[in-house]
Amino acid sequence: MNNTKKISGMGALPHPGGVAFRVWVPHAEQVSVIGTFNNWNENNHPLQPEDNGYWYGDVAEASSGDQYEFLVTTANGTFKRIDPYAREVTGSVGNAIVHNPVFDWEGDNFKLVSWNELAIYELHIGTFNDRENDNIPGTFSSAAKRLGHLKRLGINAIQIMPVGEFAGDRSWGYNPSHIFSVEITYGGTLAFKQFIKRAHHEGIAVILDVVYNHLGPSDLDLWQFDGWSENNRGGIYFYNDDRAITPWGETRPDYGRGEVRQFLLDNVMMWLEEYHIDGIRFDCTQFIRTVNGTGTQDLPDGWSLLQWINDEVAQKYPGRITIAEDLQHNRWITKDTGAGGTGFSSQWDAMFVHPIRLAVTTPQDEDRSLEAVRDAICYRYNDDAFDRVIYSESHDEVANGKERVPQEIYPDDPTGWYARKRSTIAAAMVFTSPGIPMLFQGQEFLEGGWFRDTVPVDWDNNSEFHGIVLLYRDLIRLRLNRDNFTRGLCGQFTQVYHLNDARKIIAFHRWDKGGAADDVVVVVNFFREAQDGYVIGFPAAGNWKLRFNSDWQGYSDDFHSHPSTDVVADAGDTDGLPYYATVSIGPYSVLVYSQ
Length: 595
Description:
Layout: E1 11-15, E2 18-24, E3 28-35, E4 48-49, E5 54-59, E6 67-74, E7 77-81, E8 88-89, E9 96-97, E10 120-123, H1 125-128, H2 140-144, H3 147-153, E11 157-160, E12 164-166, E13 176-182, H4 188-201, E14 205-210, H5 258-274, E15 279-282, H6 286-289, H7 300-316, E16 321-324, E17 346-348, H8 350-361, H9 370-378, E18 388-390, H10 405-409, H11 417-432, E19 436-440, H12 460-464, H13 466-479, E20 493-500, E21 505-511, E22 520-525, E23 531-538, E24 542-549, E25 567-574, E26 577-585, E27 589-594
């Protein structure tokens, strides 16, 4: 061992004179590091105790690429353990690898756009672009080949389902065994950094999904890490009472223990610093801030942990986004920590997805509730329209037997006229309502079936339904104001001013500052028949240009290209607005107007 100045940090810490190692094992009597650098000899490199249960040693013989483990001797036996902070592992039950942190980020000066100008695409690396052999999961390299498609679509952020090393080769990613290491089946650490740099080069931000509400539960070296536990539970990294219990196993981290809190914060900071990640999406935060996920048994340690993490991110990485999947319509999730909230930038919104899906999947037009649609459009958590992420499909909404929207609309003909018309209404609602819009992989070309980690996206649909892809592209273009005449879709303000439940027509006004090229009027027909000569209010006089008609035949050969046209708004109080115009709209269609 070297006796030079100690290196700060946790895990394996390469430096010019070798590799330093630090691990937290408070109940250990003796700790050594074993690896390829000492032929796994337990006597060659003992670590020395530090304060508070940390052990440290510096190994001149070790270098990047070496495999290693910690050998922990305790009153309860001797255990080989994978480094909790390992940046690379050979597999979920393999060895840790000393990771070389050097990566050429030159030219990567990417900056995330304002949150009101985000269009997110959720994807799963293992199925997004499988290799030709369907038995082999997709990789970062194969996924990178589809970034051009996303760029053409107009997407400027991808949200990647978890990539921390998990048990086995196929998984959604929500069973992390090693949260600091990148799944080796996907290509591992270096491939992920290359993927992120490539995405940034294409103008696409990368938001990463992380799992802190539980760990594992399988292939989990953290379990009883140093031999100590109470009630035969998880030991130093976990609660050892009933607070350990989650729907995924009794492996909830101990959010009240300082070293565990630091472990989770360090993980967030690693993704932001070492990987240039642009945002973090936190899985199931309701099981971090409460014991049972319903709010009837609060977990204050979890609440304060989320506050601490969000404060640290905001201070050290301003402009990065943190997103909660809480789904309990809790306004405090996106309130500032100073006001007592957890300080997330935004949160997934169950108050949007469920009523919008129901509105388009209900078989009979007469049974659709436009009041529910109105409430979904207008719902907001606090004073910011963009503190919610809105979507009609996500990995949760289209999995475990729950179908994609087109399949729910018409199970016997999920690519037929009804499925295409009504699913594109849902898409239009996502991109015209206030909030951060999100798609799930393949949604833009009517991907069928329900999401499984063994079934790859069918990219043949991208050609077959190229018109529907064009529809999504046009919606994203409008939503992000690419042509400078729909600024209102990036704005804070919304008014649903026309709701005709009998004829299933709803109209709403979006604006930022108001005026020409800003005010946007959206008209939606939730009825199976076209409606002509239909009078609605408009916020300003003069010509209103039709910017989008979802019934255009260019989107699908059997769409009707109903003769919806530009309109002229004349003076006359209508729907509480000072002007009115007469519109014609096709069946199950959406029109977008601006000046």
